[in-house]
């Protein structure tokens, strides 16, 4: 799956911390991974000396001409290791290893092009700011603090970089909360502006990057009274309207997930979701109101534990997708297909036989003709489950649909390709005979 799918969390490509420097203006102080953002005013401060370079010319070079070499972490004064985060600096690498740097040789974007949006004017501080480059999207929560600073204010921003097309709605609360916790630390103990405690920022960025990408949550104890506790909750897209003739197909074992506190209608309809019953029939079998059944199906669709397919008709036509070339060798497809499509108390056909039957589905051949030609019923195959498995894994549907030429003309059928089966017709056999 790609990040464009709204049900999956987008991957963080970079995390960086930027401030407004009194001499250089907006600049990057730390970033993870290192060396992904180019620009004249981007720099990675050494944890002790605050002197360094954001990127190096060689992934394996330890020193850069004209710049001081990073001081080892062991040179940190003991007083700087007073917080839990700082005490972990010696345990966690601040920057990627040379091997990781080699994979990050390309730049995501130039910081100079986006600096005025990373450290924006006062009017934009204290709110979510997003900025899209050609291939990436940057989201941050710029903060301006008034107080005893050299310019009477301190501006900073903790930013996350994603793919340009990623849906960042689930990350907005994450960015906002992380910035507010850091703001509280700065107001209490000058955590961000202090030369000693700011050495912990690279470790914080790295843990944010690793934990949120790997586990979708993190817990970072900054000091005795402050911690960054984050958990990402995905935002699911609204489901499409549920039609009575659609067939719900369970993507998980729903009967094993039923709990006493579930909605009564959802609990009653789940046992009848078998990949063959359509919504109206499920309502009748479960003795539920049809409108409540539609709402229950929409609820299950929202959490993406079911999907909708077309109702089975003998006039339907199917053909193979190109993906069958690699799906044929997928172990999970080979293992799941036979038991799913075989009727109870019948021998399971082997995978080559089932794949051969799928390969015989083609435009111009209805399911009724296909069943008669290959004696599918004698093989103990449930044709409805065979086609539902095919729609999900192997095939895409081609249906005979009626076409009205004028208000007084008769219906005429024609074939259209409907990926995933979004249309249905009971006139398939009749309209095909009129061609």
From TrEMBL:
Transmembrane segments annotated in the record for this chain: none
Gene Ontology MF: a single term: GTPase activator activity
GO biological process, one term: positive regulation of autophagy
Domain of life: Eukaryota
InterPro entries according to UniProt: NPR2-like (IPR009348)
GO CC, alphabetical: GATOR1 complex; vacuolar membrane
Family: Belongs to the NPR2 family.
Protein name as catalogued: Nitrogen permease regulator 2
Species for this entry: Phlebiopsis gigantea (strain 11061_1 CR5-6)
